[in-house]
Amino acid sequence: MASHEANEKFVRVGPGTPMGELMRRYWQPIAAVGELDAQPLKPVRLMGEDLVLYKDHSGTYGLLELHCAHRRADLSYGIVEAHGLRCNYHGWLYDESGQCIAQPFEDLAHPELHFKERIKLQAYPVEAKSGLLWAYLGPSPAPLVPDWEPFSWEDGLVQLVFTEVPCNWFQGQENSIDPVHFEWLHTYWSREMRGRDGPEPPTHLKVGFDEFEYGFHYRRILEGMTEDNPLWTIGRTCLWPNALMTGDHFEWRVPIDDDHMLSVGWFFDAVAPGHEFPGEKRIFHWRSPLTDAGTGRWIQSHVMNQDFIAWVGQGQLADRTKEHLAASDAGIIMMRRKFEEQMEVVARGEDPKCTFRDPATNQRLPLPRAQQRGVPAIVEPRFPFLAGIPPEVEEIYRKVRATWNEPMVEPTRV
Ligand code: FES
Ligand SMILES: [Fe+2]
C-alpha cells in the first residue's frame, strides 16, 4: 500500500503540485480536429485549469484562460473572428498568444492610453496531429508532439472517442499495466453476462513487466500458451506517461482535474491489403455515453466501459493507503516508482522521460505490436471497445472489418 503522502502526490494535478508539474511537460489530447471544424469554440478543463479552445477564421487554434480579462465573461461563448477570439460582452479581442488586440470602446475613447497592450490572458500552444488537437501547459520551449508510427497509417478507419470519467486519471493509468484484470473484468465477467456461454477464459499463469524507452511492456502467459507467443515475447505497451497502446489503438487518460479524467481513444481499423477504403471520410470522432439511460447504472457491455466501472469503483480518488498490492501488481509498483522518480527529475528542472525535441528523430516512432497490423486484438462483429458508436460510423466499421473476410463471431482473447 502507498502512504497518504505518496497517494496525494499521485493524484494532485493542479499547477505547482509535483504530478501537475510533471504532466505539464507533456502534450495532452483534448479534442478532435473535426470537432472544431464543426463548432469553433469549446470549453476545456485540463489539469484543474478552465480554458477555451477555439479555431479562428484564419485556421489558427488558440487555447486561452476561460474568463475575459475585462469583467470575466465566459469566452467559450465568444465570437471567432478572422484573427482571434472576441468576448461577446464588450467586444475585447484576443489573439492566440492571449494578447488583447482590440478594445472597441477604449480604442475610441482613449486611444492614447494603449490600454490593450497591457492586457494579456494566459495562453497555451495547440497542435493538430493524428486527427486530434493537443495542448501543452508546461514551460517554454515546448517539446514536440510525439509522432507515434500509427499516426502515419492511412489505409483504414480512425475513430476518436471521448468519454469524461468521474475519477482521477491515475486510476486509469494504473489499469494500463494490469494484464490480469483482462481475464476477470473483461473475459470472465462478459461470459457471465452472456449466461456463461462459451469456454471458461484461460487463466494467467505468468506476467512480466519491463521498462523501455517509451514506457513499459507488460507480458503474459495464459493457460495453453508457450513462451514464444507474441503476448509473452512482445506484450503490450503501457505508454508513458498516461496512455495504453495495444497494437492498433491508443487510450489516453487525460487529467481534467483531481477528480475527473477524459478518456481519449484513438482506434485504427485497417482495410485488408488490396481493398479500397469504403468511403471518402476516414477520421470520425464521437462521445461515448457512460450510463445506461434505462437503469441509470454504468454501461457494462463494452471493454472500456468495463474498465471505467473498475476505475470509478475505486472512488473518485482511490485511497491507496487501504489497498493490498499483490503479485499481479508488480507493474503498478514499477510504474509508481517511475512516476516518483520523474517528479523529482522535473523538480530539478530537467526534461522527463519521453520528451522529444529533435524533429529529425521524432518521426514515426515505432511501438511494439503483438499482432499483425489490421487484425484487431479483439474480434467481434460490433465495435467492442466503447458503447454508443454512431450508426454511420458503425456502417463503415463493418465494411472495413468485412474486407478481411473473416468470421467476425469468434472473440479473440488478449
Ligand atoms: S467582459 Fe469581456 S469584454 Fe467585457
Ligand atoms: Fe481493461
Secondary structure elements and pairings:
Layout (H helix, E strand, L loop, with lengths): L3 H8 L6 H6 L4 E5 H6 L2 E6 L2 E7 L5 E5 L13 E2 L4 E2 L6 E2 L5 E3 L1 H6 L13 E2 L1 E4 L2 E4 L20 E10 L3 H6 L5 H14 L10 E9 L2 E8 L7 H4 L2 E4 L3 E3 L3 E9 L2 E11 L12 E5 L15 H11 L16 H18 L43 H12 L12
Parallel strand pairs: 12-19
Antiparallel strand pairs: 1-11, 2-3, 3-4, 4-9, 5-6, 6-7, 7-8, 10-11, 12-18, 13-14, 14-15, 15-16, 16-17, 17-18
FE2/S2 (inorganic) cluster binds next to loops.
Feature tags:
binds fe (ii) ion; binds FE2/S2 (inorganic) cluster; alpha+beta; 24% strand; 414 residues; globular; Naphthalene 1,2-dioxygenase Alpha Subunit, Chain A, domain 1; Rieske Iron-sulfur Protein; 19 strands; disordered C terminus; eight-stranded mixed β-sheet; four-stranded antiparallel β-sheet
Write structural notes for this entry.
Helices cover 22% and strands 24% of the residues. It has 414 residues and is an alpha+beta fold. It folds into 2 domains: 38-135, Rieske Iron-sulfur Protein (3-layer Sandwich); 149-405, Alpha-Beta Complex (Naphthalene 1,2-dioxygenase Alpha Subunit, Chain A, domain 1). Strands 13-14-15-16-17-18-12-19 form an 8-stranded mixed sheet. It has a 4-stranded antiparallel sheet with strand order 2-3-4-9, with no helix packed on it. Strands 5-6-7-8 form a 4-stranded antiparallel sheet, with no helix packed on it. The model is unreliable at 407-414 (pLDDT under 50). The protein binds FE2/S2 (inorganic) cluster and fe (ii) ion. FE2/S2 (inorganic) cluster (FES) binds at residues 68, 70-71, 73, 87, 89-92. Fe (ii) ion binds at residues 175, 181-182, 185-186, 303, 307.
